[in-house]
UniProtKB/TrEMBL annotation:
Residues 5-122, 142-255 form the VOC domain. This is Biphenyl-2,3-diol 1,2-dioxygenase. Keywords: Aromatic hydrocarbons catabolism, Dioxygenase, Iron, Metal-binding, Oxidoreductase. SUPFAM superfamilies: Glyoxalase/Bleomycin resistance protein/Dihydroxybiphenyl dioxygenase (SSF54593). GO terms for molecular function: dioxygenase activity; ferrous iron binding. Belongs to the extradiol ring-cleavage dioxygenase family. Its cofactor is Fe(2+). Pfam families: Glyoxalase. It comes from the Bacteria. Signal peptide: none annotated. InterPro entries: Fosfomycin_Res_Enzymes (IPR051332), Glyas_Bleomycin-R_OHBP_Dase (IPR029068), Glyas_Fos-R_dOase_dom (IPR004360), VOC_core (IPR037523), Xdiol_ring_cleave_dOase_1/2 (IPR000486).
Length: 289
């Protein structure tokens, strides 16, 4: 009970057109638009629900909101009390925000980094089947996880573990921790860094063939592949990463494992079984023995 899954992410972006081109032509993700205030917001369609990624036109690139789906209104009330008791100010989302999210209830607070974190009840189904750009079917199936890097790692761990009741799945020295809110290996990872950022956002794909075809399209279209195809050691996912127009990574992945209640958190050592060669320096590289 409580938080059930990662529901959506909203971003302020300076180049919506570049984003929609990457999502559609390379990653095979359909994009629609919706009015929010006076802006046309681009909504990425990963599944039958309204959206998983919202791109708001802006003069700067930055995270706008991180949205988690909560099981029931009573669980939303319970989590609100836990947040309030921990010193967070929880506010109600507006009617316009609820309409855009497809939620029946929406509350939000500001995390220790300064990011807006939303708790939503309800998801609006917007379609019976997902329309994909030509030649990209079936492609993406869901939103998986994000990795948040920050100098306030201890405070973020306290928020997600002690207040929001995420479970630690595993970790890697010196400062990278993976958390789950359902049987999926992780929906969130927290890392230590000098400045706060989203390191990457992960999209789930249906099969290794879907990931491979997206990899071929990325190479053919000249998309900036920031981390090559590989398999992670901890969740066993096969994936590659592209750098998106806002400067952070998108992970295109399949095959991540589920874990049970008897899972024991542990240091999983090296980061990858094979592959995942970084175009630039890896800020989370395994320490040299």
């Amino acid at each position: 009970m409580g938080i059930r899954k990662l529901g959506y992410v909203g971003l302020n972006v300076t180049d919506v057109d570049a984003w929609t081109d990457l999502l559609g032509r390379t990653l095979g993700i359909g994009v629609t638009t919706a009015k929010f205030g006076t802006d046309d917001v681009a909504l990425a369609e990963l599944d039958e629900f309204k959206y998983r990624l919202a791109l708001h036109p802006s003069t700067q690139d930055s995270p706008r909101e991180l949205g988690w789906i909560v099981d029931t209104p009573s669980e939303l009330d319970r989590l609100t009390r836990r947040l309030t008791d921990a010193g967070f100010t929880v506010a109600e989302g507006s009617a316009e925000e609820m309409r855009l999210r497809g939620a029946t209830q929406l509350r939000w607070f500001t995390d220790p980094v300064g990011y807006r974190v939303e708790l939503a009840v309800g998801e609006a189904k917007a379609r019976t089947a997902v329309a994909r750009p030509d030649g990209t079917h079936p492609g993406a199936t869901s939103l998986g996880h994000f990795v948040l890097a920050s100098p306030r790692l201890a405070e973020l761990r306290e928020l997600y573990e002690s207040v929001l009741e995420f479970a630690l799945t595993d970790y890697r020295a010196p400062g990278l921790f993976f958390f789950r809110c359902n049987p999926t290996h992780h929906s969130l990872a927290l890392a230590v860094a000098e400045t706060p950022s989203i390191h990457h956002l992960e999209f789930e794909y249906g099969s290794i063939d879907d990931v491979g075809r997206a990899y071929d399209r990325a190479k053919a279209n000249g998309a900036p592949i920031s981390i090559s195809l590989g398999r992670h050691m901890n969740d066993k996912a096969i994936s590659f990463y592209v750098r998106n127009p806002s400067g952070f990574h998108l992970e295109i992945a399949c095959g991540g494992i589920d874990v049970g209640e008897d899972w024991v958190p542990h240091d999983f050592g090296v980061s990858d079984v094979w592959g995942h060669h970084h175009a630039d320096a890896n800020p989370f590289a395994s320490p040299t023995p």
